[in-house]
Amino acid sequence: MAYLRNLNPAQLQAVEHSPNIPLQILAGPGSGKTRVLTARIAHLIFHHRILPQAICAVTFTNKAANEMRARLQVLVGRHETGLIRMGTFHALCASFLRRHGSKLNLETNFTICDADESKKIIKKLLEDHTKFLADKNVSLTEGTAMSLISKVKARGETADDLRARHLRMKARQSDGRKRRRPQPLDDDQDEDGGTNPLLQDVNVLEVVADVYKRYERKLRQSNSLDFDDLLLFGVRLFERHPSVGEWCEHVLVDEFQDTNTIQYELMRRIAAASGCVTIVGDPDQSIYGWRSAEVKNLRNMLRDFPQTQQILLEQNYRSTASILGASMAIVAQDKKRVAKTLLATHPIGRRPMLQLHLNEYEEATFIATEIKHLVAATGGMLAWGDFVVLLRFNALSRLIESALQKEGIPNRILGGHKFFERLEVKDLLAYLQLIDNPHFVPAFSRAINVPARGIGEKTVAEILATAERLKLSPLTVVTRIHDGKLPDIKPSVKRKLATFVPPMQKLRKLARERTPPSALIRRLLHLVEFEAHLKKTQKDWDSRVENVQELINFASEVETSEGIAGGVRPDAGERWDVDEDWDVLPELDLEDERLSLGSDTPLRLFLQASMLSTDVAAENKDDGKGKVTLTTCHAAKGLEWPVVFIPAGMLEDGTFPSHRAEDVDEERRLLYVACTRAQTLLYLTHANSRMFAGETRKKDLSEFVSIALKENQNSFAREAPHLTANLSAGDRALLAKMLGRQAPDEAEVARRLAEQYVVARCPDVQFSDFLHYQAAESTRL
Ligand code: ATP
Ligand code: MG
């Protein structure tokens, strides 16, 4: 079988391991874990005759799912690949809940509420506690409240649990006061209590419990679920209705070290029927502790699946030996970690470069000019798409972006949810969300005034209050006002609704007719005169128009991948009425609105893909090919690039380790993850001083790097004599010529080789191709 070729013995063993014995594949970066997982899926299908639809594969990002899908299409075919239930935990839950949500009394046409929308809701709810918090002298921002709620949710605690916790804490405290001795908060002293002392504050707990409760209510009223809810309800679904998971014969999870408690719980329950699980992971790459990821899930798995066996992979196929050496020198500083072997397959290559700069401007300029230089010097062997700049935070990208632009280097930002956070994209998504779910208040509040219709905040509040009172969606309320079936509001809004209600009616009708989302967006743009609105309100309207186009492209991609290009007709027997006007539906319109769009409409599939997109703008692969990528270390997990730059204070005390980070070990692992993305060239840059919160600060090199530097220099000196082993006679002669001597000594050859043997990952490229490339003088790590 093709997928079994090119695997080393340990990888082969992992792929062929019996499907009935749970398996943990533990190994360092670039050792082929993801490749093995993919091959194992193919093996389950071909050899063990497991149906593709009985396999559940969990990836950490959508990009990873897409890559795995692309590889599997080659291995098992397009149709079979389409049947595998594959995606992030969130995306999988969303689709399970769309299908079975009614078992939990959920409307299956729920809208996914993104973090930005959640934050807005929480901010409003928090306002009711402003005075209380001020009286108690406690500061609690909406961001903190949101992350506290999210953490509590990630552990599966409900608002009522939190309230009960608050009452217990209060009782204990008054008890303690009576006895004049504070009592320990035993069961509250959990991990969260440790890392989040805020939740140990009785006042904060009271406020958070209340905000959490009302936030949940708001979400349900809007018929929406936030990201945490997707997991929470997902677990509940399998817990209460175990039969829902009976289809599943094997669960596979990539990047297992970064699963949190609730995700682990989900995996356990999906696998409950079959007991067949394969996970791959690397504790050294655990970088989501701040999001409640639990490395101890590896041990939990051994407890819950006692048959579990482990296979270790020890060969790295990604990076040159010197990049691997430098990376290992960084991670090895963690004395608590369990050491593991990771051997390089590629030659030593050019050693990672450590560059010191005066300030961040010089640093950014260096990166841009070096990239340009490398592309020119390698005669096109390296293209823009081969470069990535890995940042600690997204916010650090500005300077580098502008330096790249100055040099005319095309670039793109990958990561987070950036593309979908743009104003114009959010505005359009709000329309589409509202078309899909007229109850979704955040979308209504946004769309109603884009383009500006002069409907004030007070009026919007009044519309929302009416909707709540009459148990109607806000969209139905404005439609009725527009049609004169509900009294107008003063000052009159009826007239202003003329540019909102009729377009929405048309668009909803189109959506109900299963119009492909790309066509729906085009129609929307036309009906609300969106381009004119951008021209009128935005200076950079032309680049925003491009983003709109990008959204249409993304929609077309979703249509292709979901098989809805050209629009799919509804399944026979599905209940929906094309002719019936949705807005004149009888009183109980919640129910009718639900039925009116049917389940899994093209629009809904598109919205789901947008909301759950974990990475790049439109995740367009071709897009990345010709552009330098800027992204965060977190978003780069699992990926690889020929050339990696790690700048912007990543290596300075106070930035990396970040002063925000509570866990120095996690910061070190993050740097390790970043370094191990590199295949051929790795640049670490560092500025002597940097602007920080408006003032220039002097920066010292992070100890992660200075310690690694020393260790690595020693080890390089030891290894130098072996480096010439692979040198061809031709290269040796060339090198001799270059050095002006007949027979260069071994050490000299090794040094030159290390500096200039750039493309170790392309064995057919001769060393001589790169002789014209002269490295800038710098420290070699
Ligand atoms: P990470 O921990 O960063 O996610 P990983 O262990 O998942 O890394 P992969 O991404 O699967 O590693 O593989 C790294 C690179 O090595 C890929 O380009 C992959 O195609 C290649 N590779 C893996 N195994 C082999 C092999 N046996 N022969 C040749 N190349 C391999
Ligand atoms: Mg991987």
* Strand percent estimate: 5-15%
What helical percentage do the residues reach?
40-55%
Strand order of the largest sheet: 13-14-12-15-16-11-19
Using the 3D structure, state the CATH architecture of the largest domain: 3-Layer(aba) Sandwich
Explain what the structure shows.
Helices cover 48% and strands 10% of the residues. The chain folds into 5 domains: 2-108 and 232-313, Rossmann fold (3-Layer(aba) Sandwich), CATH 3.40.50; 111-174 and 194-222, no CATH class; 323-416 and 621-741, 3-Layer(aba) Sandwich (Rossmann fold), CATH 3.40.50.300; 420-562, PCRA, domain 4 (Orthogonal Bundle); 745-780, no CATH class. The strands form 5 sheets. A 7-stranded mixed β-sheet has the order 13-14-12-15-16-11-19. The two termini are 42 Å apart.
Task: List strands and helices in order, with pairings.
Elements: H1 9-16, E1 23-27, H2 33-46, E2 55-58, H3 62-76, H4 78-83, E3 85-87, H5 89-100, E4 111-113, H6 115-127, H7 130-135, H8 142-154, H9 159-178, H10 191-195, H11 202-221, E5 224-226, H12 227-240, E6 250-253, H13 261-270, E7 277-281, H14 297-304, E8 309-313, E9 315-316, H15 321-331, E10 343-344, E11 353-357, H16 360-377, E12 387-391, H17 397-406, E13 411-414, H18 423-436, H19 441-447, H20 457-470, H21 474-482, H22 501-512, H23 517-527, H24 530-537, H25 541-562, H26 589-597, H27 602-611, H28 621-625, E14 628-632, E15 641-646, H29 664-675, E16 678-687, E17 689-692, E18 695-698, H30 703-719, H31 729-739, H32 746-756, E19 779-780
Parallel strand pairs: 1-7, 1-8, 2-3, 2-6, 4-5, 6-7, 9-10, 11-16, 12-14, 12-15, 13-14, 15-16
Antiparallel strand pairs: 11-19, 17-18
Helix pairs in contact: 1-2, 2-3, 5-12, 6-8, 6-11, 9-11, 12-13, 15-29, 15-30, 16-17, 18-19, 20-21, 22-23, 23-25, 24-25, 25-27
Bound molecules: adenosine-5'-triphosphate and magnesium ion.
